[in-house]
Amino acid sequence: MKPHFVIALKNISRNKARSIVTILLSSFATAILVFSTALMDGEHKVFLQSAVELYPGYIQVTHKDFKDEPSLDNIILDSSKVVKDINTQKGVELTASRFETFVLFSSDIKSVGGLLAGVEPVNESKVSKLKESLLKGEYLKDDESNSLYIGYELARNLKIDIDDKVSYIGTGADYSFTADNLIVKGIFQTGLFDFDASSAFVSKKYFDEMFVSSGMATHIVVLPKVKEDARVVSDEISKVIPKSLVSKSWDESMEALIKAMELDSIFGYITLGIFFIVIFFVILIYTFISVFARIKEIGILRAIGTKQKEILQMLLFESSVLALVSVIIGGIIGAAIAYYFNINPIDFGSEFDEQFKQYGLVNTKLPTDFNVVNILRDMFIMFILCVASTLYPIIKINKFKPKEAMDHV
Fold it and tell me: Residue 308 contacts by C-beta under 8 Å, 6 or more apart in sequence?
């Protein structure tokens, strides 16, 4: 090792107080960055997961024209065969068929239009969070007839409650009129106002009898065995279903929401960037003071023949060693905290249920995202930041002439 590098290491050990303060400052900033990123990414993942699992599902199979024209002309006619073909795929956990239609709901006081969907209650409870969104009453059962599971806002508009009667009139799959009286069995609240104000559900067995829709569906929701493989499983499903149908994974069908999350991430990183610009200047000021306190030392080294280049290398090596130690310590601390809250999500408790539901979140537990690649990325950013903060004072002090440096007070 070159002499000026040996001197740099000795300077670190000799000036313990300065080295410790530098390491503490940089380690704290690194730990904050690692944990903040993990928390922000975890929040976005939970939001996306909640949005997907709330009702849309990870994979949806529909008629290719249903999204643009949701009519009875664009439905899945032989849903049982399609479901059978889908279930042959290795990556499929289970499927749930739905038939959605719009009806006119009427109570003794008011009439309101809304969505009435026939669902398979047991399978539906596994592909969506409808059951977990129960506010009061009970969830549906597969073999139930004329029992209604209704959104909170829609129930409030109709001025009905549990065990109240509500009538509906709609159009069957054969374009005939259908009407019946339903008894409110359960009221759900997802926190998504439009959904809660327009949606109600009955068992598909009852729905098929009343709407003449046996063997038909508007949607087949697929739960993959591995959620992260939704796109791959969706592509495989596309190969076995009729050409008139289309299979889309959540990242295809909810592209707008994903872009919104990406935009939110950008603003989040901008906020973190502003915070770390402040940290950068704090480290810069401390480094500036520390380096300028060593002007006489640098003057003596220059006087005995040490070149400017060697002085620059010595000080940069010194700052790099301190930065490396700092980011390793800070990275380990931040990663440990992120890992802990990844395994043990931050629990905001039941008292925050309503606030979370306002954002469409059914679960009040917020885990961090423990991602090794992101952690290493943040550590690298902080390493560059720490070294960069020493460049100006090092270059500034290295411009002093030997005598000028030695006479500096």
Answer: 302, 398
Please check whether residue 64 is in contact with residue 244, taking contact to mean a CB–CB distance below 8 angstroms.
yes
Distance in angstroms between the alpha carbons of the first and the last residue of the chain: 32
Q: pLDDT tens digits, residue range 5-62?
A: 666 666 666 777 777 888 888 898 889 889 988 888 887 777 777 778 888 889 999 9
Q: Which amino acid type is present at position 75?
A: I
CB 123 within 8 A of CB 86: no
Question: Do 365 and 345 contact (CB within 8 A), yes or no?
Answer: yes
Question: What is 219-245 written as a DSSP string?
Answer: EEEEEESSGGGHHHHHHHHHTTS-TTE
CA dist., res. 184 & res. 159, Å (int): 12
Give the pLDDT of residue 3. Answer: 61
Report the alpha-carbon distance of residue 191 to residue 353 in Å, rounded: 10
DSSP letter assigned to residue 217: B
Torsional class of 360: left (φ above 0), alpha (ψ -120 to 50), beta (otherwise): left
Q: Are strands 111-119 and 134-137 parallel, antiparallel or unpaired?
A: unpaired
Query: What is the CB-side half-sphere exposure of residue 201 using CA atoms within 13 A?
Result: 29
In contact, 397 and 298? CB cutoff 8 Å: yes
Can you spell out the DSSP letters for 39-100? HHHHHHHHHHHHHHHHTT-SEEEEETTTTTS-STTSSBS-HHHHHHHHTTSTTEEEEEEEEE
Q: How far apart are CA 340 and CA 361, in angstroms?
A: 22
C-alpha span between 348 and 353 (Å, rounded)? 8
User: Hey, how many other C-beta atoms are within 10 angstroms of the C-beta on 86?
Assistant: 21
Please give the torsion angle defined by the CA atoms of residues 345, 196, 144 and 162, in that order, rounded to the nearest 10 degrees: 100
pTM: 0.65
Place of tokens 């009905």: 160
Question: Are the beta carbons of 114 and 161 closer than 8 angstroms?
Answer: no
Q: Return the closest-CA partner of residue 42 out of 382, 351, 378, 371.
A: 371
Give the tokens for residue 406: 């030695």
Point out the least confidently predicted range of 93-107, 268-282, 347-361: 347-361
